[in-house]
Amino acid sequence: MENPLLLFPQLNISASKDKAYYKKTVIKEEPHKASKAGAKQKRNRLSLLLQKPEFHEGDHLGKAGSLTKAASVSPEEAVKWGESFDKLLSEKAGLDAFTKFLKSEFSEENIEFWIACEDYKKSRSAHELLPKAKTIYETFIQKDAPKEINIDFHTKNDISQKISEPTLSCFDAAQSSIYSLMAKDSFPRFLRSDVYRELLQ
C-alpha cells in the first residue's frame, strides 16, 4: 500500500517539527542485523523521502503553528462558526480548531476521513481514483484499519464490493454518515469545549 500521507498530505494532521520525518534520522548500523551496505541504502531512501515536498508542504493542518493561527482568529469569526457546522468546516482556522478538539477526544479519524473524501472527489482522472480509493479503504474502512471509522455493515460491505473499480461517489454514503455523526454529536460538544471558548475571548 502507498503511504497515505503521500496521496493525502492533508491527513498529516498532527505533524509537527518534532516528528521523526522532519529530522534526518541517523540509522545506527548493527552488524548482526544488517550489512553496512544495507544501512547505507536505508539512509539514502530516508534522505529521498525527506526531500519530497509532500513531507513539508503547507497542507490542511500539517504545518507547525497552524493551531496558533486558529487561536488568533477574531471572536467575531469564531461566533460565526457556531452558527453552522458547514461554516466551521469551510474555513481552515475552523477546521484546525475542530480537529484539535477531536484529537482531544481521540476521534480525529472522523475528520481525517471526511477530508480524504473531499480530496478524493476532486480527482480528475480514473488513473487517480484507484490508488486514492485503496488508500482510503485500507486506512479507514476495512476491518481493523489503523483509523477505522464507525459505519454500518451495509455501507462498509457496499464499499468493499466497489473498491476494485471505484467511482467518484463510492464513499458518499460513508462520508455522509460520518458528517452527520460529527454534526449531531461532536459539533455541539465542540461549541461547549475550552478550545472553542478560548477563541471567543
TrEMBL record:
Gene3D superfamilies, per the entry: 1.10.196.10, Regulator of G-protein Signalling 4, domain 2
Domain called RGS: residue spans: 84-200
Keywords: Signal transduction inhibitor
Gene Ontology annotations of biological process type: negative regulation of signal transduction
Name of the protein this chain belongs to: RGS18 protein
Keyword Glycoprotein in record: no
Source superkingdom: Eukaryota
UniProt KW Lipid metabolism keyword: no
SUPFAM superfamilies to which the protein is assigned, alphabetical: Regulator of G-protein signaling, RGS
InterPro entries the record matches: RGS (IPR016137), RGS_sf (IPR036305), RGS_subdom1/3 (IPR024066), RGS_subdomain_2 (IPR044926)
